Amino acid sequence: MKSFAFIVNPATIKQLKDFRPALRLLPDFVISSPLKNFFSCKSCKVSPIKKVQSIQKKEINGFFIVCPPEKILDGGHIAKRLGAKVIGLNGYASYIVDKDQNAITRELNIPVTNGNAFTAWSVFEAIYRVTKINNIELKKSNLAISEATNPIGSLCAKKLSDYVSSITIVSDQRDRLLELKEKILDLNHIEVIMENDVHRAVENADIVINTNNSPEIEFEIEDLKPNAIVCDISLSDNIFKKLKLRKDITFIRCGLVKLPYPVKLGINTGLPKGIILASLAETMLLTFEEKFVSYSLGDNINLDKLEEIADIAARYGFEVWIPEAPVM
Questions:
Q1: Is residue 68 located within the same domain as residue 170?
Q2: What is the pTM of this model?
Q3: pLDDT, tens digit, for every residue of 197-237?
Q4: Count of domains in the chain?
């Protein structure tokens, strides 16, 4: 039976406690000074993921491997020893750059994916379904994307450029913003605004995509225009609580996928039963498909991969999870 590994770096204290339940006995301040150093003294934690089934009842197995960034190669070697054919990564974006990711594949001689293709697709599908169910005309909508130069933000900008009237791309990296703007305009002749102030960027946006994995939003809820839609991939409870103070705002947690059949993951991810991260789902789908390649790694991800991974997901019964706009 084919198997995969999913290497995770907890981004917040809550996630760390979810992955290591024994830490729930400690107050947050003990763990947070600093979280990284506290966690790095621990060995990688391995938990089996058994009998993941597709709608065809095809089965695969896998492993959760929880480890800090400086031990990512250790986690990769563990994955290889366990027989994984592909490795998914989550929570390492701020620690490793493209050349380091490629170094991982070279050293381990095993394909690696960040799951960015399926994550970006989940954002697109969320916006498409929510606007459709609320009779909102996308072609008349203004879109703003925070941290637009990261891989997910860039993919969302390029994909949605065919559906909205204008896009404001936000980043403090002007050279990369200009490069992204040119790529968008190569695809579609729409208005593209470059902005380094996220507060200004969201003021006139009908739809805001937050691709920053930080547990705090960079803009204030007062910045948002009435009846805006906010799509967030951080899965932060802090962001959720803040945005819920605005009753007119539609808040969508993106980057989540519903499995065809619930699976015992062996680790408390803090998500509802049967719901997993899109990055984990992408790793599983590549294993089902026996497509053992570094599928969505780095910045230069082909836009066609969003459609492809969506088709693969439909084939195996994986569904983008959007409670606000369920599939009918």
A1: no
A2: 0.89
A3: 999 999 999 999 998 776 667 788 889 999 999 999 887 77
A4: 2
